[in-house]
Amino acid sequence: TDVRSKLIEAFSKADGKFISGQEIAEYIGCSRTAVWKHIEDLRSEGYVLEAVRKKGYQIVSKPEKVTANEIKLGLQTKIFGKSVHYEESVESTQKIAHRLAGDGASEGTLVVAEEQTFGKGRLSRSWHSPKHTGVWMSLILRPNIPFHQAPQLTLLTAVAVVQGIEEATDLMPGIKWPNDILINQKKVTGILTELQAEADRIHSVIIGIGINVNQKNDDFPEDLRQKASSLFIESGQPVSRARLIQHILAKMEQLYQLYLDKGFTPIKILWESYAVSLGKEIKASTLTETLYGKALGITDEGVLLLEDNAGQIHTIYSADIEIP
Ligand code: BTX
């Protein structure tokens, strides 16, 4: 808003020095009570402000942002992320990416937001996406592949995210089929792949990636604290989201090229090397049934193979997996 930019302007003019409430009030043309309220708003957006009696306010640090400029500066890709659509707050980056893809956005177009108010998980579940602490992004791809191979791109994305996290931190995440990335058994990332297609022709694949980056434990709602974590919680270090995005885009572009050239096999080998569930006893809940058995591996289609106790092998296209 207008007041917001004036307030920021007042602080940049003060150039790191204290600026009194009175001065701010005059600068933006409001009451001192209103100033206090605007300062609180800034704080809730991730600004750290010091307030000292008789001296006024000073900005100690600004929130780290993931604007198009931050992402593009130092990005080592040819096409992924060359076009970035950035928003402060959206319902879901998927929704915007769908619209852009429908309007003909080119392959590699990235939609990224500081906050999602209706972040989407799979099967109409929701994805908690608070302001400034995570990576909430959607990438538009236009592969020339048949419909049934699209799930392979979810697996490819999981590999890219693991490798990107490994580049940006000291952490070593694992993958739980099909799309969860775990650290110490807690979910730090979710991937949602959606298609725009007709008959057997794919117009575009919209890959949504949600990564918990700088959240503290208290930032998660009660019901997620046991099963979710962030890179900050696991590593003890704040992580630059823009740098993380750059690493992931670079890995993804490499793997995508490999996939288009050589098919799914090399991706599958990488995926299996990060998988945490293979060879283990698992519980798979599909929409219609619950199966227990050993996770044998994935097929070339990215489908999970489960051997039940009677030795029968099931192919699982979509399910939630627990490793009891
Ligand atoms: P999923 O269905 O595998 O996971 C959703 C479930 O995960 C929820 O029901 C909840 O239990 C749990 N959960 C919700 N939020 C979080 C969180 N922040 N961290 C850990 N666990 C959580 C996974 O679906 C796919 C998520 C994709 C999110 C991205 S963000 C950018 C893009 N835009 C969008 O709306 N969705 C995608």
Count of all domains: 3
Structural class estimated from helices and strands: alpha+beta
Q: What composes the largest sheet?
A: 7 strands, mixed
The overall strand count is 14
Please bin the fraction of helical residues.
25-40%
Question: Any idea what the radius of gyration is?
Answer: 22 Å
H/E series: HHHEEHEHEEHEEEEHHHEEEEE
Give the distinct bound molecules.
Answer: ligand BTX
Instruction: Using the coordinates shown, work out and report the CATH topology of the largest domain.
Output: BirA Bifunctional Protein, domain 2
Overall, the morphology is: elongated
Please, could you describe this protein's structure?
The chain is of the alpha+beta class. The protein has 3 domains: 2-61, Winged helix-like DNA-binding domain superfamily/Winged helix DNA-binding domain (Arc Repressor Mutant, subunit A, Orthogonal Bundle), CATH 1.10.10; 68-274, BirA Bifunctional Protein, domain 2, CATH 3.30.930; 281-322, SH3 type barrels (Roll). The chain contains 9 helices and 14 strands. The chain has helices at residues 2-14, 21-28, 32-44, 68-72, 93-102, 151-168, 231-235, 241-262, 265-274, and strands at residues 48-52, 56-61, 84-90, 110-116, 134-141, 174-176, 180-183, 186-198, 201-212, 281-285, 290-298, 304-307, 313-316, 320-322. The strands form 3 sheets. Strands 3-4-5-9-8-7-6 form a 7-stranded mixed beta sheet, with helices on both faces. The chain has a 5-stranded antiparallel beta sheet with strand order 13-12-11-10-14, with no helix packed on it. A hairpin with a 5-residue loop joins strand 11 (290-298) and strand 12. The longest helix is centred in the C-terminal third of the chain and has 22 residues, at 241-262. It starts with a helix and ends with a strand. The chain binds ligand BTX. Ligand BTX is lined by residues 92-94, 116, 119-123, 125, 127-129, 136-138, 179, 187, 190-192, 208-210, 212, 224, 228.
